[in-house]
């Protein structure tokens, strides 16, 4: 019987002499979690369900690389099941990290992927060949009038996308509705003939997520900021499939997956983000508040843009303390298919929000084609 195989490669702490046994242990833990004697009772389990050990090699003393072939049908079209299959019980083993993932076309075909992707967002904004200028609406605790003014000034300055900060959480639906309606109105009043995108924060009680999405779209917002590792990866897939809108993924809580063991950042912020239907993925980047190198940021961007069967590409959104003086490095690393997300740097600029936004946009215009639809 032909089985669609997912190839998953792991970096594992372990002795070379025990590496074959360790690989077999991982194969069993991820799929059936029973003693070998019980596996032997059922030939189909051994041949079709338990992962096949494809390759084991020593990368360095005490560090092994294990490649497993997993039955893709075990994941079905549920990203929670896919995560459990890929890491599950092995996440509790010592120093196991999923470093590479190859999904067969049949598995990829179960996911609709980003609805708008890079091309669709460009069409909405009218910006055809430069990075988008984005900011975050914050801080939580500021008067609503100040948040509305940020929306207004950023739009006047020519910004392309404003998203709620992931900490901007409203207490109830009425408060959420009032804030979103007023922020959206300020953007629409100032945007002129070029549409600007506004995405609301959708970290909320699970039973309110759909209601908040409905309120946001009725108010004229364009979509949402979703935190897959807070509200659930498959819940994100369900929301992006249900509500036609633009979506960005936020990395909150992803550090528990990507710091050391767990799952490599390009898979988390790139591959899985695209499967969940996110049009772009926010990730912490070099030059900000978090310890990430430039090569690591570029690897995440590559995972967002590389061919993935019929799954559309996603925007790279480097963040975490990006500043205008870092624009040359950001442009060099990520190119035009990037959302340049600067929150605090714009909000505290001595020039003011509108003037600082206009300055950033002008710097980008100098580096990219002047034939823009704006």
What does this structure look like?
It is a single chain. The protein folds into 2 domains: 5-108, Alpha-Beta Plaits, CATH 3.30.70.150; 117-367, Ribulose bisphosphate carboxylase, large subunit, C-terminal domain (TIM Barrel), CATH 3.20.20. Helices cover 41% and strands 19% of the residues. The protein is built from 17 helices and 13 strands. The strands form 2 sheets. An 8-stranded parallel β-sheet has the order 12-11-9-8-7-6-5-13. It has a 5-stranded mixed β-sheet with strand order 2-3-1-4-10. Strand 7 (197-201), helix 9 (209-219) and strand 8 (223-226) form a beta-alpha-beta unit. The relative contact order is 0.13.
By CATH, the superfamily of the largest domain comes out as Ribulose bisphosphate carboxylase, large subunit, C-terminal domain
Radius of gyration: 22 Å
Q: What is the C-level CATH assignment of the largest domain? A: Alpha Beta
Widest sheet: strand ordering: 12-11-9-8-7-6-5-13
Strand count, sense and barrel status of the largest sheet are:
8 strands, parallel
Count all strands and give the number. Answer: 13
């Amino acid at each position: 019987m032909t089985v669609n195989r997912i190839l998953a490669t792991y970096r594992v702490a372990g002795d070379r002499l025990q590496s074959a046994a360790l690989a077999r242990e991982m194969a069993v833990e991820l799929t059936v979690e029973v003693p070998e004697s019980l596996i032997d009772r059922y030939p189909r389990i051994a041949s079709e369900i338990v992962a096949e050990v494809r390759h084991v090699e020593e990368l360095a003393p005490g560090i092994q690389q294990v490649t497993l072939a997993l039955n893709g049908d075990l994941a079905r079209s549920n990203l929670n099941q896919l995560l459990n299959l890929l890491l599950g019980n092995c996440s509790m083993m010592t120093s196991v990290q999923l470093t590479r993932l190859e999904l067969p076309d049949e598995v990829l075909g179960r996911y609709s992927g980003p609805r708008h992707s890079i091309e669709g967002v460009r069409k909405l904004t009218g910006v055809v060949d430069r990075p988008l200028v984005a900011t975050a609406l914050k801080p939580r605790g500021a008067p609503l009038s100040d948040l509305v003014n940020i929306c207004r000034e950023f739009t006047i300055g020519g910004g392309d996308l404003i998203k709620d900060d992931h900490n901007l959480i409203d207490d109830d639906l009425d408060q959420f509705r009032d804030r979103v309606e007023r922020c959206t109105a300020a953007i629409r009043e100032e945007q002129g003939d070029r549409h600007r995108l506004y995405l609301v924060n959708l970290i909320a009680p699970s039973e309110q997520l759909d209601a908040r999405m409905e309120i946001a779209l009725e108010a004229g917002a364009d979509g949402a900021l979703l935190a897959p590792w807070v509200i659930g990866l498959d819940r994100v897939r369900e929301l992006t499939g249900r509500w036609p809108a633009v979506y960005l993924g936020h990395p909150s809580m992803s550090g528990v997956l990507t710091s050391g063991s767990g799952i490599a950042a390009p898979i988390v912020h790139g591959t899985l983000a695209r499967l969940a239907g996110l049009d772009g993925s926010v990730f912490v980047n070099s030059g900000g508040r978090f310890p990430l190198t430039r090569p690591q940021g570029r690897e995440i961007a590559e995972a967002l843009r590389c061919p993935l069967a019929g799954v559309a590409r996603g925007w790279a959104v480097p963040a975490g303390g990006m500043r205008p003086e870092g624009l040359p490095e950001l442009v060099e690393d990520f190119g035009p298919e990037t959302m340049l997300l600067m929150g605090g740097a714009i909000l505290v600029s001595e020039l003011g929000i509108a003037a600082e936004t206009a300055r950033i946009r002008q710097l980008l215009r100098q580096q990219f084609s002047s034939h823009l639809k704006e």
